[in-house]
Specification:
A hairpin with a 2-residue loop joins strand 14 and strand 15. The chain has helices at residues 5-10, 12-36, 41-48, 52-65, 130-146, 184-192, 201-212, 271-275, 277-286, 295-303, 307-331, 341-345, 347-357, 374-389, and strands at 68-70, 75-77, 80-84, 87-89, 94-101, 105-111, 117-124, 152-160, 163-165, 170-174, 179-182, 196-200, 220-226, 230-236, 239-240, 335-339, 365-367. The model is unreliable at 1-14 (pLDDT under 50). By secondary structure, the protein is of the alpha/beta class. The strands form 5 sheets. Strands 7-6-5-8-12 form a 5-stranded mixed beta sheet. It has a 5-stranded mixed beta sheet with strand order 15-14-13-16-17, sandwiched between helices.
Length: 399
């Protein structure tokens, strides 16, 4: 047998395993800095189980990339011994772009490495075709970057409701927008010249919660998004479930017991038809509370003391609670996060939702951690998730 035969058969396997191990180790080190910084390298080693030498090596590489920096504050371990110079995330240098396409408008934003929104803008669609919507988003992003001199962009995250295929970077189907097989990554990448990462907004927000929100550290998280689109996402052991071609979380047509709203699919009582913000606004118009399509006007009317607006919001939150209860029965997550305007802005709506879930599980349910910037965070979180999963692969063009 030729002397090269064995290496040819066996060498690719350890290389792949080593690459995966390095990527995972780099990820846990950077996330430890994100979560605990300023933090000593020795503490990172203890938290992650990696050797001190490995942690020092990864921190040196992150510092070279500009992702972390040494803190100016010395720390002593339990007050004795040689003081440590801790490291912290460097959130002054890089940003990511975020693009979220909702039914009436697109939200474009810049976020720092901690997931904080630095700038944002909303662009109405006005019936434009997908290519036009994405071109306007790219132009808006360019304008935001022009207003942030010195910031270097690592990439762009795109999020939307409907069926979004992360791997191909495509909006496969978004019935409310009329989008089908839209190559978002290709179109937005060509317009911006930047790496573009694409995912569904429910999954994007699970990742945002996992990195920056109250769900950080949870072993399993369910997220229910109830806007004009109603969908869900589930993460366990730090991984969001996507399913074949990213179809997981499509709950729009789950039947709601006692539901009366007609659905575009031809049936009555589908979850999205019952919970959609379009349904809430239609009911508010019928009650004379508003004359448009902005659900925040219903929240405003309730805050001003309108009893009908209060009733509509509480009823909607109760229906959301029933949906959460069904999903809890199936998935049994450690924590549930809900994105719904009543729950995000009114304690009585959160109480109504928790009452429907049941006293034994009510404490597991909380509103999204970013009530004033949900859509901006959703877009940016797609790119930030990529960064924190593989920080050593940060865009060389940006760095």
């Amino acid at each position: 047998m030729p002397r090269t035969a064995a290496p040819l058969l066996t060498s690719p396997i350890p290389r792949v395993a080593d690459s995966d191990r390095r990527r995972t180790s780099a990820s846990v080190v950077l996330r430890s800095v994100l979560e605990h910084g300023p933090v000593a390298r020795s503490t990172i080693a203890r938290l992650t189980g990696l050797s001190p030498a490995s942690v020092t090596d990864y921190c040196a590489r992150f510092a070279e990339l500009g992702l972390i920096r040494e803190s100016a504050v010395l720390r002593r371990s339990k007050g004795v011994g040689r003081p440590h110079l801790p490291v912290d995330l460097d959130d002054s240098r890089f940003v990511v772009g975020g693009v979220h396409v909702a039914v009436p408008y697109t939200t474009v934003a810049l976020l720092d490495l901690r997931g904080r929104v630095l700038a944002r803008s909303e662009v109405e669609h006005g019936g434009a075709e997908p290519a036009q919507v994405l071109a306007r988003a790219a132009d808006t992003l360019a304008a935001l970057l022009a207003g942030a001199p010195g910031s270097r962009v690592l990439g762009v995250g795109f999020a939307a409701g409907g069926w979004v295929d992360r791997d191909s970077g495509t909006v496969v189907e978004h019935p409310l927008l009329g989008w089908r097989e839209v190559p978002v990554r290709e179109l937005l990448g060509a317009r911006t010249g930047l790496p573009v990462h694409v995912d569904g907004h429910a999954r994007a927000l699970v990742n945002a919660e996992r990195l920056f929100g109250r769900a950080r550290g949870s072993r399993s998280v369910l997220h229910l998004f109830a806007g004009n689109v109603v969908d869900a996402a589930f993460a366990t052991h730090d991984e969001v479930h996507h399913g074949p071609r990213s179809q997981a979380g499509a709950i729009a047509h789950l039947p709601v017991p006692g539901g009366t709203e007609p659905c575009d699919c031809g049936r009555v009582g589908c979850l999205q038809a019952e919970l959609s913000e379009r349904t809430l606004c239609r009911r508010a118009r019928e009650a004379g509370i508003l004359d448009g399509m902005n659900p925040m006007h219903v929240v405003g009317a309730a805050a001003a003391g309108d009893p009908v607006a209060v009733r509509l919001l509480r009823e909607r939150s109760r229906r959301v609670g029933r949906a959460v209860g069904l999903l809890l029965d199936v998935l049994n997550p450690e924590q549930v996060v809900v994105t719904e305007i009543g729950v995000m802005h009114r304690s009585d709506c959160l109480a109504a939702l928790r009452e429907e879930v049941g006293a034994d599980r009510a404490a597991t349910v909380s509103p999204i951690s970013f009530p004033d910037s949900v859509l901006a965070v959703a877009g940016g979180a797609v790119a930030l998730d990529v960064l924190y999963r593989d920080p050593l692969a940060a865009s060389p063009d940006a760095i």
